[in-house]
Predict the structure.
Amino acid sequence: MNAPGGPAPSLDVRGLAYAYPDGHQALFGVDLTVARGERVALLGPNGAGKTTLVLHLNGILAGGAGAVSVAGRPVVREHLPEIRRLVGIVFQDPDDQLFMPTVQEDVAFGPAAMGLRGDELSARVAAALRQVGMAEYADRPPHHLSFGQRRRVAVATVLAMRPEILVLDEPSSNLDPAARRELAQILRSLDITVLMVTHDLPYALELCPRSVILSEGVIVADGATGDLLADEELLRRHRLELPFGFAPRATPPGLLDRPDTT
Amino acid sequence: MGAGHAHRLYTHRSSPAHALPPHCKLAAVLCFVLVVVSTPREAVWAFGAYALLLAAVTAVARLPAVPLLRRLLIEAPFVAFALLMPFVVPGERITVLGAGLSVPGLWGAWNILAKATLGTAASVLLAATTEPRDLLLGLQRLGLPQPLTQIASFMVRYGDVVADELRRMSIARRSRGFAARGPRQWGVLAKTAGAVFIRSYERGERVHLAMVSRGYTGELPVIRELRATRAQWARAAALPAAALPVCLLGRLL
C-alpha cells in the first residue's frame, strides 16, 4: 500500500487481535490501511468489534497481537501523547465528549493539553469552531445546544488538535435529516483523512468512496462503497441492511461528490 | 432535583458587584463569614448591622430582594434543628406562652439562626453575581487543589445531564401508571436512584476515555487567567472591612 517514497499511510493496522480481560475475544487479526486523504467507512453490525478497533487506534486499548501505526509512527507507549494528537476520535455521545463547562473551553482542552497557550490557543479554537460553523456558540454551555450542534462541536474538539486522521464513531446517530446533511457538508469540506465507523449504509455511500466490513473481529470485505452495498448476499451474511426502498446503484457516486450548493 | 439550578442561581446584571473578579468576591465572602461567626451572640445589634451591609450589597448588585430571600429557604433544615434547641438543651428555664424553654437553648438557637442566615445570604449573593464557571476559576486561582475543582467542574457540566435523565425516567415511570403516593413506593424510587448512579458511573468511564483520547494527563488546562487590580481587591474588601469594626465593637461592648 505504501508507495516507495510516498507519504506513510494515515493509518496502518496489521494483524490486530485482541481479547478483553474477561476472555471475550473481539478482534481476530484485522488488517486495514487508510491512505492519506482517503475517506473510508468501517461498516459492521453491533458487536462486530468496531469500537474495540477504534480504541486501539490511539492506544487506549493495547496488549493484544499485531501492530497499529499512524502516519508512520507506531502506536506504542512512548509515542502516546503524539498519537493522541494525530488520531482525533469523535465519540458517539457528544455529552461524553464535551465535558468542559463551555464550548470554547472544551475545544481548547486538546490543544491546551498539547501545551498551546494564549493567542495561539484562541486562534486554534476559533478556527476549529469556524470549520464546523459553530463560532458564535463559543461561550455557551454544551447543555444548551441541540444534539446536532453538540455533535459538530465534538468534531471541532478534535479538529483543534490538527489530527492526521479523524475517526468518527456513528456520526449520524440521533441526528435529524437536516443535522445529518449539515454534518455531511462539514465532513466533506475538511481536507483530512476520515475513518467513519457506522452501520448507516446510505451515509457511508454519501461520504466515503471506500468501505470495509468488519464482522466477528475480522475484515471480511474491502472495496468501493457502491459495490459493497450492491452485494445483497454479502450484506445479509454480516447483518447489514439497507433502509427500505434504498437502491445504492440509483445514486452514482459522482453525483455525491458535487460541491454543495446550499 | 431541580434541573439547571446552577445556572438559575445566577442573575444576569451589569453591576459593580458582577464585574469584580471571582476570586476577589470569594475571598471577600469568606472573610465576611469569618467576621460574622466570631461575633459574640449577645451583640444582637451587630447582626442587624451585618444584614444591612448585605442589603447594601444587594442594592449595589441591582438584585431583586424577594427572589434572594426565597433562596434563603435552603437553610430550612438547619432552622428546624435550631428550633429544637430551646426544648432540648438543659439549663435555666423560662416560661413563654405556657411552654418551658431553656435560656441557653434560646441563645444557641439565635446564634445558629443569625449566623447561618447571614452566611447563607452572603453565599446567595455570591452565586447571584458570579457564574458557576467563574466561581470554579476563582477557587482554582485561590489555590483549591485541582482534583476538587475538577470534580466541581464536572458537577456543573453534568448536573443538567443527570437531571434530564432523571426526568425521562420519571416520565417513563408515570407513563406506566406509577405514582409515588407513600412509603410503599419508596422502593421504586430507590431503584431509580440506583439506576441513575450506575448510568452516571458508566458515563464517567466514557467521559474519562474521551478525555484521555485528547491528551488528559490529570490536569484541566487553565485557559482564562484571572487577574485582579488593586482597586478591584479594595472594592471586594469593602464588605468584610465594614463588618470588622462591627464585630470588634460587639466584642468590646
Q: What stands out?
A: Chain A touches chain B through 33 residues (CB under 8 Å). The first strand of chain A starts at residue 11 and ends at 19. The domain at 11-99+163-242 of chain A is CATH 3.40.50.300 (Rossmann fold).
